[in-house]
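Figure-free illustration: sequence to structure, shown twice.
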Amino acid sequence: MSLTSPQTDPGPSPLALDLQSLGQLVRKQRIACELSLLDAADAMNVDAVLLGHIEDGQTVDTDSLLTVLRGLGLRLLVMPTGDAEVTLRMLGHTISYQPAAPPNAGLSDAGTSFVLDETTPTLFVDFDGTLHVGRAFIDECNQITLDSGRRPMEFAPLLVELLEPYPDVEIVLTTSWLQKLSVAEVVSHLPLELAGRVVGTTRDIKPRMSYVLSGADRTYVIVSYAYGHRLKNWLAIDDAVFGASQFGREPGALLAHFLLLDSARGIGDAIPRQHIRRWLADVHHDRSF
């Protein structure tokens, strides 16, 4: 019988030779904590873009880096090379001074790189207070009536008209109808011209309680979807996107992505329609260069 103690896996080496290897350690620790990038950033009171930059090995200010390390339970230990080698060997690690692989190479946490490189114009669309006036009541037979007595999807043809010159625009649904109806049932209430543009919904993104209590839960799930899908060109039209100024790397950085509607008028109001029309023109102009 062998008296040799079984070898335990020491885990990934804690040696960070450059920003790329440090970023990989940060990403692995976040994943080990079972935190999404947005939730981790929120818990540490840092911007998700900044956290994404750290994980991608990009340069950030030292204070922010130390804040993230502390927030994830990591510490930066500085010592002479010889002492570091002894410490690593005592922890069961071999010494390698090879530079880290490029960001995201071989990592399983797909989609966490924070380069916003998906340029497809994307419109986040609510129903109540946006495509019609009133709140929906959904009965046991999944029949829809509005508390305003108005017709559901009254303003949907206006959105069809706005989008008609831009066939590449995609739609992500944010409506509360998704809490009671299947995605297929929700989409079926849209005109065919809009239904064919739907590529996703935010139904599976659960907001943190702090956002629910502050009324910014709809805004949170939209930002979470946009970041998770690396969207660059997006606009949310909604009567419940409150607190948008608290999201983004700097206060107000994402305000231009939100169009807060008057629930009594929705996109029946000419002013928000002009805003949407201008956004469509601008985003397509930018993509042409």
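We now fold a second protein in the same way, so the two outputs can be compared directly.
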Amino acid sequence: MEHRISEYINMKLTQKRMSLKELEFKSSISQSQISKLSRGLVSKLSAGTFYSLIKAFDDNVKDASGIVYKEFNFKLNKVDYKKRNDFGELMKSFETKENTIDIIAQKAGLKESRAFDLYYRNGALEAFELIMIEKAIGVEAGTLFELYFKEN
């Protein structure tokens, strides 16, 4: 996914009158990594890096994602539910599963194999994926970032 983290970093550094050293301290991201990010040399933006930067700039996921993913349309996909017969419709009221991996993947536009990697393997979570997953499960922007990257 194409991102504009360099544009975001440079804009925020100017707005906040912040030095790279101060950003390094506040974000816990090395100056060399910040330099690469600010020059557009990093192709994949991890969710952790994105969150560290927005917290360092005292920003929020919703506003930051509008800048970083300016061209991306954060619209959910429709879920293709299988048509049920009368008995299937009756049984729907007894089902309790919501937000299953396959439903979240469909809504967020992720391949099921990618969702499986994120849930069960060591798939590196990208920022846009976490934003779409938040939308898919209906939580406020930034909720999963805060829960997942909460400082202990």
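Summary for the second example: The chain has ten helices and no strands.
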